């Protein structure tokens, strides 16, 4: 089985970018070790702090954030970083080529129940037209990501990565400590009979998504003419991993639950990297009105509605918004 670095070299990836990816993955191995230790690691449960978005931080969230941040700031390829757990951007090495954004632990409500969680990351070229410590470094459309990936800490630790080409899947070989290529190119089937949405939000949904989901639930008796099944991980990274593996549609639409927060998922370090991975695996990733990868961000913690997965099913869902 091929190791990660030779595979990236074969893909023509720049040496500096390879070094940067390896730094993120070194941090991921530390996190994977602690996740695998569970309660024995002594870092389950919550801290008393809240992050910028008013969410209680889990201890493991804080540890994972610190680990990745420290390792990235030690890396001379990183000009600035942004994290779900940091209020503002953090400046790195002056004139370094890349900027990195990450969600250190996506799905943190799964930490204490031994469910799947993951680290999501994205890399862009640093901008020379704005200062190193300006949030505008990150005001770049998702289509300009030079690398997107996640590490899923599930029963196996898996890395899913794209550097612009196919979305490849690697598995952490715990005995030797390296990521080995286990799927050359993920290929999301364009049709599906599986959907993922948090149905508890139904009363807050807009009419378009209400009607779409109602039609799925009608199954073979409704206009879709086929039966659908539902899955929900409470960790986007887990849901998208399933979709990358066997197809499906993932929806986190806008809703009326909180007028100050019309959407839940973060553009920079959740929607964009996962959108790139889905699109490069022949899937489709949209908001309710356009491609996720076309959005010009105006805030590092900006939130967007997300509809992604099997191409034909995403298009069917979007048609409800066009009627
Ligand atoms: P965290 O990044 O705070 O762990 O949130 C995870 C998440 O944003 C996303 O991964 C899930 O799809 C979503 O929350 C689940 O939220 P609900 O199940 O509460 O709707």
Automatic annotation (TrEMBL):
Where mainly located? Answer: cytoplasm
Reactions catalysed: beta-D-fructose 1,6-bisphosphate + H2O = beta-D-fructose 6-phosphate + phosphate
Q: Where in the cell is it found?
A: Cytoplasm
What would be one Gene Ontology cellular-component term for the protein? cytosol
Q: What is its EC number?
A: 3.1.3.11
Any one Gene Ontology MF annotation carried by this entry is: fructose 1,6-bisphosphate 1-phosphatase activity
What are the record keywords, sorted? Carbohydrate metabolism, Cytoplasm, Hydrolase, Magnesium, Metal-binding
Lineage, top-rank taxon, reads Bacteria
> Where in this chain does the record put each Fructose-1-6-bisphosphatase class I N-terminal domain?
16-183
Q: Which InterPro entries match?
A: FBPase_C_dom (IPR044015), FBPase_class-1 (IPR000146), FBPase_N (IPR033391), FBPtase (IPR028343), Fructose_bisphosphatase_AS (IPR020548)
Q: In which residues is Mg(2+) 1 bound?
A: 84, 103, 105
Tell me the residue numbers annotated for binding Mg(2+) 2: 103, 106, 270
Q: Which co-factors does it depend on? A: Mg(2+)
Q: How is the cofactor bound?
A: Binds 2 magnesium ions per subunit.
Per UniProt, where does substrate bind? Answer: 106-109, 198, 264
Q: Where's the Fructose-1-6-bisphosphatase class 1 C-terminal domain?
A: 188-321
The pathway where this protein functions is: Carbohydrate biosynthesis; Calvin cycle
Q: Which Pfam families match?
A: FBPase, FBPase_C
How would you summarize the oligomeric state and partners of this protein? Answer: Homotetramer.
Query: Family, per the entry?
Result: Belongs to the FBPase class 1 family.
Q: What is this protein called?
A: Fructose-1,6-bisphosphatase class 1
* Taxonomic source organism: Catenovulum maritimum
Q: Tell me the organism's taxonomic lineage.
A: Bacteria, Pseudomonadati, Pseudomonadota, Gammaproteobacteria, Alteromonadales
- The gene designation is fbp
